[in-house]
Amino acid sequence: MIKEKNRDFSYPQKDLIFRVNDLMVTGEEEISTIVDRLGTELTIDPALKYRSDNGLIINNRDFMHQFRHLLGHYSTKEDLAYYMTLYPLHYASETFNYNHKYIGDAILLLASKMIADGNVHKKEILSAISDEFDGISCCEYENNLFVKEDYTETIAKLKEMVGVKREKTFIDKISALTLAKKESVKLDSITGQAVAIYAGDALSAQLVEETKKAIINSDAKFVEFAMSTKLAGQTLVDSNYEIAYRKAGTMMLDALDSGANILVCLKDEDLTIFKSIVAEAERTMGRDIDIALISFVELQELTTGVTA
């Protein structure tokens, strides 16, 4: 139908994958199913914009390159067959947004399977996925598939096997000492302010909705932003702090650029991390991040109608 209206629109004749509202969809998915779940306001993009050659056609050579280069020597035909089923997952990898050289989530799942199957090359497999800059230490897994398949636990166990914790270099430690730490902003009221909510992952939609209502009932403006339910480097601070700073900075600037001057973090752990690295995030992003970070408890003290 699109091709009839736009002759220049192109898509692959096989292995069609693309994004709908940032979720990875395959060509086998029924349009009615997509509309039932996502509604009629749909944004369609290539699987990865920076790998798009023409329309929805992408340069997908990296998919098989990662297999051959990293695990092919230790794999069986069954392993290859399994890896081929992970084609959509590879391009759904959230980390590609922050590191174009990342090896991809799919190769991590293949490594996990091979080890679980008793592959005798466990040491070599773990080494192959452990590149300091582009390997598993970069991975902060997000379930970006339209057909939901959650591999959070699988990747977490693989990280434990690898041991991804990485100490800062001496230069990085010295550099951090030169950064002026952000002073916390003391708020007496949110009336007239523009307030966004950072929910992160695995939080009750009901709690988010109640918090939103309390903000509006306090004569403040509620601001929505794209990364409000995305992880933002929290799990990477001890393994790949460069990407942690970039993700946190991207999230906070997303809220700021969407019009917010206050950001409520519903999880105390998230707030603690973001406050501790905001100066590093500013340096990484090359911009000031002038947004007040407050906790859910602080919001409760400034509003009425929010209960934990």
Polypeptide structure, described:
The chain has about 300 residues and is an alpha/beta fold. It folds into 2 domains: about 1-165, Fumarate Reductase Iron-sulfur Protein, Chain B, domain 2 (Orthogonal Bundle); about 195-300, Rossmann fold. About 40% of the residues lie in helices and about 10% in strands. The chain contains 13 helices and 9 strands. The strands form 3 sheets. The chain has a 4-stranded parallel beta sheet with strand order 7-6-8-9, with helices on both faces. A 3-stranded antiparallel beta sheet has the order 2-1-3. Strand 4 (about 50-55) and strand 5 (about 55-60) form a beta hairpin. Helix 11 packs across helix 12. The radius of gyration is 21 Å and the shape is globular. The N and C termini lie far apart (about 50 Å).
